[in-house]
Known about the structure:
The structure holds 2 protein chains of 2 kinds.
Chain A: E1 5-18, E2 21-34, E3 38-42, H1 49-57, E4 65-73, E5 76-77, H2 83-89, E6 94-97, H3 111-119, H4 129-142, H5 148-152, H6 161-173, E7 179-183, H7 191-208, E8 211-216, H8 219-225, E9 228-233, E10 236-242, H9 243-248, H10 253-260, E11 307-311, E12 314-317, H11 329-332
Parallel strand pairs in A: 3-8, 3-9, 6-7, 7-8
Antiparallel strand pairs in A: 1-2, 1-4, 4-5, 9-10, 10-12, 11-12
Helix pairs in contact in A: 3-4, 4-6, 6-7
Chain B: H1 2-15, H2 20-25, H3 31-40, H4 47-59, H5 73-108, H6 113-127, H7 130-144, H8 168-174, H9 178-215, H10 218-225, H11 230-268, H12 273-282, H13 286-314, H14 316-326
Helix pairs in contact in B: 1-13, 5-6, 5-9, 5-11, 6-9, 7-9, 7-11, 8-9, 9-11, 10-11, 11-12, 11-13, 12-13, 13-14
Amino acid sequence: MPREMLLDIRNLHVSFTGYRGHSRVLNGVNLTVGRGEKVGLVGETGCGKSLTVRAVLGLLQPPRARIRGEIWFAGRNLLALPPGELQQIRGREIAMIFQDPMAALNPVFTVGDQLLDIIARRPGGRPSERAAWARAVDILKEVALPDPERIMRAYPVQLSGGMRQRVLIAMALVNEPALVIADEPGTALDVTIQEQILQVMRALVDAKRTSVLLITHNLGVVRQTTDRVYVMYAGSIAETAPTADLFSAPQHPYTQGLLASVPKLTGEGVPRGIDGMIPDYLNPPPGCRFAPRCQFAQPRCQQPPPWVRVGAEHDVACVLYDDGSRPSAERAAPSPIPLPTGEGTDEASGLPSNTAPAVTRP
Amino acid sequence: MLLGLSLLIFVIARVIPGDPARIALGPLASRAQIAALRAQMYLDEPLPVQYAHYVRGVVRGDFGESLYTHRPVTTDLHDLFPATLELVLYAGLLMVAVGVPLGILAASYRDTWVDTLVRLISLGGVVTPAFVWAIVLMLIFAYALGVLPVAGRLSAGAVPPPPVTGLVTIDALLDRNPATYLDFLRHLVLPAVSLALAGVAQAARLTRASMVDVAGRPFIEAARAFGISNARIALKYMLKPSLIPTVTILGLDFAALLGNAFLVEAVFNWPGIARYGVQVILRKDLNAIVAVVIIMGLFFVVINFLIDILVGYLDPRIRLRQADEAA
């Protein structure tokens, strides 16, 4: 690949042992983020998106979580690092923007108290008190918060959801990390606020050429924000492609179903769901985990799916494409699936997890 | 609230069987003597009239005279309450200073042998009453090892410091008298420890449970993701939120120490209000019973008030809501 790799997740497996048995959630995830690249990771609730990024940050605790594979970041395998060194990377080189602004801020400390603790960890030594305060005020201005001095002295309960989400973005970006992991930012907020939040985030990461790994189930957000997309299903990557290609020519039956289930603002066509539900991780189907719900399933799907290149940077994990030729549209999608194409059709609609017909909570 | 409490205990003290005048004067007293005392105590009046007489006295700071010590109850309380207060304060201090760190330790090393040990010890502490500890500790340290005094507040020959506050520790320090201070501490250790053990165990369990609960909150994961060190997360980001429920319950436990002090003071012959309380109840000393109960009620009220202030300090949500309501 021409791009310089920043994050390279190779064959990541994560499993948990619980009372009911051994659940293998992540089943060989491969994912890369280049320097300065904005990558989306989409999938239904419960497919393992959040688990993947928590493994990157070292937030999964062995022995409860069993982790296998490699996570290379800027030349180091994070899974092989001692905990102390990983802690040095967190918040400095990799930072995370959390999903729920109501829950991710500590309610009993002021915003300033929490933000200054993070600034104290700036690479290159702890800044003076005055410099740290100035830096905090600056970053709050950068996320377009009015009256930063007042917000520094405020407790989280005194701020609105949108303001808290901005504070969380400020906390993630204040030490200028090389990679920002954004876990569904703004999902808990209403749509107009969410759009403002995403604009603020995009402006900041573009200005500093920060790499972004954006986790979401909102296809509209992915389309607006990212260069490349990974589609995840039940613990493994189903398809990856440049964002434009994925929306114009989805290949994996799951991707097609996901796109077809988005309601369109123009009102034409009825959104279609995908029958069935996410498999039980305690006892997943052998081979392709999507096969039980797939209308094209065949005996070969009992084997692990092949990883097939179907276009420039466009790969798909599906036997349908294994014969080397790119399949005809009829074969890949025998019925006309209304894909969300064209400007303004799905911009704001997204795919909220609780309304998408494809989503059935396990 | 205190008015209701005084009424309640006033009535209870009078409906329990036995004639206080007869108990006070002994079996050899004549009918006339008993009748005279009953009249003096208004015991032949109806209850509401008795209560009215009593309240009139209390408002003037007069709790009546004790039939047991034949002194004004106020004088008895003034002499005895500081000893109990001091015992309870030191036990409360132990409860917080030992229990809370143990809880933090157990939560930080959750599911390891450290955690298991702390939990086992605290379970033992919670299920064993204070007077059992009092007797066990007394047997070990005072009789078997002989390293600590058996009973009392000061050694026989010791001269108590000039009373300023009534608390010997503070008076001894004000008097610049380290010898008395140490002598007192040696007497204090066993009663305070046996009184505090259940509270220490309770504090450790509460702190641990609360810390474990807070550890699962998203803001703790967020703090870890921002690279805050584990020690700082435990001692700052987890401790303060988890202290909010802990402090509320510890406050009640602290007030309850006064109740547990009854038996501990009896075992160690500690000259405090709790031991006095036991004696006056046995003698049906009406005025003293009511006064002791009212003092203890007052103690509960003061402690609860202080706890509310402390929780308001710890939890900005409560503080800010009250500020909003005031505005």
